[in-house]
C-alpha cells in the first residue's frame, strides 16, 4: 500500500479571490466551501491504518494456521487505486477556457486600441477658444449644419435648438 | 469670440461651402495664391488700439518721429479749420442733427457698451464651457474604459487557478477514497480475527459451564438417600 501519489498544488485562495469578477462571486464561494470540505475530510483520515498485532492473534486464536494464512494474504493484498475519470474532462474544459480567454483578450485589445484612438483625438484637439466654426465642424462632424436639407436659418429643425 | 467670428465668416462660409470640404483644418477660400498646409495662427483677442474710439493708434505712432505727441492733433485741428473756413464742409441743419445723434450714440455706447459685451461673451463662454464639459466627460470615460479593459484582462489571467483548484479537488477525493478502502480492509480483517477469538472464548465458557453443571448434577445424583440422611438429621432436629 503506497502512500500519496499526486502532490497537491498549493492554491493561493486570497489571490484567486482578487481575480474573481463580482458577478461570479457566488460560484467562487461555492467552490471554496466544497474544496474546504473535501480537504477537511482528507485531513481527518490518517494516511495508513493502525497495523494489526499479528503476534497477539497468533497466540490467541486456537485454530492452527488461520492467523498465518490471514497474515500472508493480508501482506500480499494490494488495494487498487481508484481510477481518475475527471482529469481529462478538466483538461478539456481548460483548453476551451483558454481559447475563450484568448478570444476575449483579443477583442478587449481591439476595444482598447479604439478607445486610445478616440482619446488621442481628444487630446490633440485645439482648445475650443481657438477654434473657428469650420474647425468645430471638422472635429465634431455632428455639429455641421446641413445647408441642403434646411436652406433657411437656423439650418436645423426648430425643435433641435 | 466665436459669436463675433460667426458674423465675420458667415459670407465666407456661404461662398466656401460649395467648394467642398477640405481635409485641412481651416478653409482657405479667400487665399488666391497656392495653398500652404501650415495651421492658421490663432486670431488676436482684442481689436486694434484706437485713440478716442475712432482714430487708430497707428497714425500717432506713424507721425510721432516727425511731429512728436501733438502732431496728429495739430493735423486734425488744422484739417477741421480748413474744411470749415473754406466752406468745404457747410454747417447746416444736418450738422445739428448729426451732432445730437452722435452725442446720443456716444453716450449709449459708453454707458451700456461693457455690459452688452460681457453678456455676449457670457453666451459664448457658456457654449464653450458646454463643449469643454462634453470633451472632459468623454476623456474621463475613455480612460476609465481603458482601465477596466486592462483589469478584465488581468482577471482573465487568473483562470489557471480555477483549474488547479478543480484538479486538486479531484486528487483529494481519490486519495480520500483510497484511504477509506484500506481502512475498510484492515477493519474487516480485524473483525474476522476478533470474531474467531470471541467464538473460541464462547466455546470455552460454554464448555466450562456445561462441565460444571454436569459435575454438579452428578454429585447431586450420587448423594444417595443413605448418605443424605445423616447429614439432613441435624437440620431437622
Class inferred from helices and paired strands of chain B: mainly alpha
Mean pLDDT across all residues of chain B, rounded? 83
**Terminal CA distance of chain B:** 152 Å
Which sheet architecture does the biggest sheet of chain A show? none
The H-and-E topology of chain B, N to C, reads as HEEHHHHH
| Shape descriptor of chain B | rod-shaped
Rg of chain B to the nearest angstrom?
A: 62 Å
Shape of chain A: rod-shaped
Beta strand % of chain A: under 5%
Give the number of DSSP strands of chain A. 0
The parts of chain B where pLDDT drops under 50 for at least 5 residues are 1-25
**Share of helix of chain B, binned:** over 70%
What string gives the helices and strands of chain A in order?
HHHHHH
By DSSP (H or I, 4+ residues per run), the number of helices of chain B equals 6
Largest sheet of chain B: 2 strands, antiparallel
Range of helix content of chain A: 55-70%
* Total beta strands of chain B: 2
First-to-last CA distance of chain A: 87 Å
Protein name (chain A): ATP synthase subunit d, mitochondrial
Keywords (chain A): CF(0), Hydrogen ion transport, Ion transport, Membrane, Mitochondrion, Mitochondrion inner membrane, Transport
Main location (chain A): mitochondrion
InterPro entries (chain A): ATP_synth_F0_dsu_mt (IPR008689), ATP_synth_F0_dsu_sf_mt (IPR036228)
